[in-house]
């Protein structure tokens, strides 16, 4: 099953985002494969090593993410971390497609256009209620449940995971911001809904 099949079966804003994201990531993955194949061909002598290919090779050797790969989502991460991050992003959409339904918890940082997810939530809320867009107010709650215990979607809205806190921690007992643990500048936040 492909993303377009899911959209045709159940046309909704979230499945439209799935189609858009898979298109974007397919373009990125094709670009990565093409540039690596060109580099390999240049190294073994099948094609001439151009200046552009030489610069690309030097970036890879320095473990930097090439500029042409950063068009979808810019990063300051080194190449290895970027590849791991890309794998997680692609896995999120692959699982969505293979199961045919949106995940219960969306990894918001894994979207190239996270605002589209929030807009889809607004559209779905409007569609399922008598509320006008101008009357909607964003309301969010940090889940008291451990992420592994969240198995069903909320009655209204979505669960979002993967947000980070910088310079702060989260007190699970009292559900409030707390001082960061010593030597931890960034901590994982609980899921939101």
From TrEMBL:
<dbReference type="InterPro" id="IPR043160">
    <property type="entry name" value="Dynein_C_barrel"/>
</dbReference>
<dbReference type="InterPro" id="IPR026983">
    <property type="entry name" value="DHC"/>
</dbReference>
<feature type="domain" description="Dynein heavy chain C-terminal">
    <location>
        <begin position="9"/>
        <end position="189"/>
    </location>
</feature>
<dbReference type="GO" id="GO:0007018">
    <property type="term" value="P:microtubule-based movement"/>
</dbReference>
<dbReference type="GO" id="GO:0051959">
    <property type="term" value="F:dynein light intermediate chain binding"/>
</dbReference>
<dbReference type="GO" id="GO:0045505">
    <property type="term" value="F:dynein intermediate chain binding"/>
</dbReference>
<dbReference type="InterPro" id="IPR041228">
    <property type="entry name" value="Dynein_C"/>
</dbReference>
<protein>
    <submittedName>
        <fullName>Dynein heavy chain 2, axonemal</fullName>
    </submittedName>
</protein>
<dbReference type="GO" id="GO:0030286">
    <property type="term" value="C:dynein complex"/>
</dbReference>
<dbReference type="Pfam" id="PF18199">
    <property type="entry name" value="Dynein_C"/>
</dbReference>
